[in-house]
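**Fold tokens**
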Amino acid sequence: MKEKDEGDKLITMHYSFPDGTEVTFNCIASIMGEKTTWRIICEDGSWVGRSLNCEGYFPNSINNNKLLGSFETFEDIPTHRIVCAEGDDLLDSVAVHLRNSTCMFRNTEPNVVSFYNDQQITEEVVEFPAGSILVSRCVDIGKYAMIGSSRRRCVGGEWDGQKPVCFGLNQENDYAMEKPPTILFRHQLGPIAQSNDGRLIVYPGTILHMECLWIRRFGAPKWVISHNYRKYPEGWTTDPGRDSQLEYRLSIYHASRDDSGVFTCVTPTRHTHAVEIVVKAVHCPMLPPRRGLNLNTMNTKMNTKVLLSCANGNSLIGASEITCLPSGNWSAPIPICESIECADLINLTDAYLRVSILSREVGGRSVFSCTQGYGLRGPHEAICLSSGDWASPLPTCQEVQCDTPGTPDNGYIQGNGPYKAGDVIQFNCNPEFMMEGQPIIACQENGRWSGTVPKCVQACSYPGTTISGRMSAVKFYYKIGETITFTCDEGLGLKGAPMLRCLRNGKWSNAIPTCVPIPTSSPVILAR
């Protein structure tokens, strides 16, 4: 087999190409005006390629060529086969293996639940590797019907099949006659569950009632079953608490494997809704005994919930509750009990960070702080996780400064800047002025002061006291308009004004009075 020179046209497949060779397939515009080029490269003995938009001028010699493509699978590898033809004559055909590409799944479709590896997908956006298979169904197979593929695979960066969509039935549409009927499920003596792919799994021996919703005055629906195993009782329900004008029931008593099949409710308007029933004794594997692990039940039947805890004071590593799924798998791996401690935080890289470890056991806390002048950036505490790691990254300490708060009118500040976290300043007022507000504020870790700048307002200072007398209020400063009164000890009388008032100018209305002996020969006359 000979090699092809660079730039030559490919007419047949009888050529060999060295590693790194690039081959381009050109085509003319489609009926929609689109042009496409396929470019492939020889890599390690395989052709790998992708499509590009056609650009530039193409020679007349290939203007009549057509480029055809089809997807196929070769040994489970997604493949695109490129065929170049002129009229009805095949010019070339190359199978291009698509590169492994991940697929993005957006969990935004209402009333649709999807599963991967038997686990429900709860995240809004998830990236899956090539070859991943998703299984989907409606959130309730009796109340919604699905259009689309229940199983989809990630192929070449895209999900194959049709995107599933679930639409509500007549119960969600006020029991409209033009809508398919809703089917309700009720059961006794055994569990039922909806499988990932939208079937109803019924445990053998269970009594299952399926109620097809239809307004009775418009006629009666009927049930159609895919087999003739036995005759099932059906009719309008008469149970207490049920609606005999709406619920047309079919009952399966003590279900057995032969009851499996498709049960379809057909309304008088010929709208249908079907449920596939699988009668199967689903059990999950026995839970193996593990040291120190307590289980509230050893039952492994479908829908069983098992609560797990540790008896030896150790930490539970894994789920505290698991459920037996309709697939026969437990909803989570079996947990274990281990004694776990988080690392001692002694080798801190931040010289200003201080830590106080209250407990290193799972659930224990460590509390962080910074040296004076520095503020904490990050969480104030961390919790010891069951993985043995402290939750969240450690915080850091950054130098914090507060702006100068300003000086109050008729006052001054004690303390000079710059002001770092933890620094305090004290405000003072000039003589004849009193303070309204906090005299001391502190610079906090957030770079803000703990309080506002106080005010210095006009006031009267302490006027002094009189000998052998008393005054009504003793303070350093008195507000404008405030009054004080004086009294004398027994046997003495006031000489002067008995009451002083603080005036607007910060002065007292009179001098303080004095206490003098009371003359015995004549009554005391008080001076004005």
In short: Residues 225 and 263 are 5 Å apart (CA to CA). The mean pLDDT is 83. The longest strand covers residues 65-74. DSSP finds no helices and 49 strands in the chain.
